[in-house]
Design brief:
Structural class: mainly alpha
CATH class of the largest domain: Mainly Alpha
Radius of gyration: 20 Å
Distance between the termini: 47 Å
Length: 201
């Protein structure tokens, strides 16, 4: 929906909430949720605080919309990776390689916005990010359990922990090459952890 709002000089202009979500997503991804203030957001979006609250309800409300968009457009395509016909070890290794690529894709907005959001000081924002994180964990665990249920918990935990480490390392400026090296090493560890028959089903 596009609405008219008044600019500081009194001239109406068009405000598109969907476009605002794109702009705000980059700001949150670059700085992290806690480092972005409502004043930062209203400045970046070119609106005043009343218009901001009317459109999004709160900073956390805007963040929830951004997480939904991120899950649809910027997150690792877990469903596609696991739906392909390939050995389990290869699928899990690809998840980690894709994580490394995604987390380093934009030098100004590194890491996983969901994983970084799970450490937010704002309980509402933290809960929203944790919801997406848990959903991704559950999806990984479900696909492991479908092929090798005895290994589901420990492998899902290993993959999740590695992804968190890759995200943090990307935020700290580690290069794509080093992130990929870590992801591939973890992939080899997964293949070694699975019994031979499990690694090829």
């Amino acid at each position: 929906m596009t609405t008219n709002i008044s600019s500081p000089r009194g001239r109406p202009r068009r405000f598109n909430p969907d476009e605002a979500v794109v702009t705000a997503q980059r700001l949150f991804h670059e700085k992290g949720y806690d480092a972005v203030s409502v004043a930062d957001l209203t400045k970046a979006l070119g609106i005043n605080p009343p218009s901001f609250y009317a459109a999004f309800g709160s900073k956390a409300g805007l963040y929830a919309r951004i997480l939904d968009r991120y899950a649809q457009t910027g997150a690792i395509p877990l469903t596609q990776i696991f739906s392909a016909e390939r050995p389990l070890a290869e699928a899990l290794a690809e998840v980690l390689v894709e994580a490394a690529r995604h987390y380093a894709a934009d030098p100004a907005a590194t890491g996983c916005m969901v994983l970084e959001g799970t450490r937010s000081n704002d309980p509402e924002a933290r809960d929203a990010a944790c919801g997406y994180h848990v959903a991704a964990q559950d999806l990984i665990r479900k696909h492991i359990a479908a092929r090798y249920p005895q290994e589901a918990d420990r492998l899902a935990d290993f993959v999740s922990t590695t992804m968190a480490g890759l995200s943090a390392s990307a935020r700290h400026g580690q290069s794509l090459e080093r992130l990929l090296a870590t992801a591939r090493l973890a992939g080899l560890a997964i293949a070694q952890a699975l019994p031979p028959d499990a690694a090829h089903v």
